[in-house]
Each structure stands twice: as C-alpha cells, then as structure tokens.
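pls ignore typos typing on phone
8-OXO-2'-deoxyguanosine-5'-triphosphate + seq
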Amino acid sequence: MATIPNERLREALQVEKNPTWMPVVALALRDQSGRLLLQKRPPHKHHGGLWELPGGKVESDEFPRLALTREIAEELAITIDPASLTPGLLADEGEFGATVLFVYDCSRWSGEIRPLEHQEWGWFTFAEAGELPLAPMDRDLIKRMAQ
Ligand SMILES: Nc1nc2c([nH]c(=O)n2[C@H]2C[C@H](O)[C@@H](COP(=O)(O)OP(=O)(O)OP(=O)(O)O)O2)c(=O)[nH]1
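k done
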C-alpha cells in the first residue's frame, strides 16, 4: 500500500474540521440458549437490507458504553447497564480502516425487546447467522465468535 505523508493526509481530509475515522459500537446480546440477536438494516441506510448486531455511531460528545446504551434503547427498547458491558471483538472496514466497530458483550439487561425502528430482528445460532446476508464486518465477526 502506498504511504501517504501525514501532513498531506491531514490537509486532504481537513482533520481539524472533520474526524478522520468513525467509531461504531455494537452489542453481542445472547438469549438463554446462546443464540445471538441480529437485526436487519433499513433499506435506505449504508449496507441496507443486510443483517447486523444492534448499535450505531458514537457521537463526538459521547462515551462508547453510553452511546451503546442509548442506541440499544432507541432500537430495541431495552435497558442495558453500561457497567455490565464487557469489551469483546473489534472489526474495521474501508481502505484505511476508517470505520471501527467495537463489540461489547452484555450480562445484564431489562425490559422486553421491541423493534422501535420497525426493523426485522431475531435470535440466531452461529450456523443460522452464517446463512444470512450479513454486513461485511459482521460476516467476519460472527465467524470469529463461532470459533
Ligand atoms: N450498528 C451497526 N453498524 C454496523 C454493523 N456492521 C457494520 O458494518 N456497521 C456499519 C454500518 C454503518 O456504516 C455504521 C453504523 O451506522 P448506523 O447507521 O448503524 O449508525 P446510527 O444508528 O448512529 O445511524 P444514523 O446516524 O445513520 O441514523 O457501521 C453492526 O453490526 N452494527
């Protein structure tokens, strides 16, 4: 891969004004039999129609665990305890790995799951998940989770 001097890269990307990379947090939520919760991305979004772990972008004024707590409440109507999250796997995509997905495991949550963004969702074994059209980072993550 060609090396780009940092100064030129900073100029090209105007890093003082724009962040150079995007942190995304996602939740690996399991049911009692160990199946994983996955949801389908809305058709109008990036990777629309592909299956993913619930979660979303970390805003610039947020801490990752709090961003994940917020996203999960917005998407699934359940409450997770930020203190009960355990950092898990990591994936990235883009030429320079500009989107970084941080996956957390969760041991405590409350409420009843309701898809507030009208998204399809379900519990899947790793074998079942492997048959779904997954977002690219999730394909890699689920393979690694299954090992
Ligand atoms: N939440 C989530 N995003 C993923 C996964 N895999 C994957 O490639 N992505 C990508 C898709 C998007 O480019 C980005 C997350 O964006 P998002 O659209 O979910 O974020 P958001 O909920 O904050 O949405 P918005 O600002 O677009 O409304 O990460 C995943 O498992 N979970």
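Residues 64-76 form the longest helix (13 residues). Residues 24, 26, 45-47, 52-53, 55-57, 71, 99, 101, 135, 137-138 surround 8-OXO-2'-deoxyguanosine-5'-triphosphate (CB under 6 Å). more later
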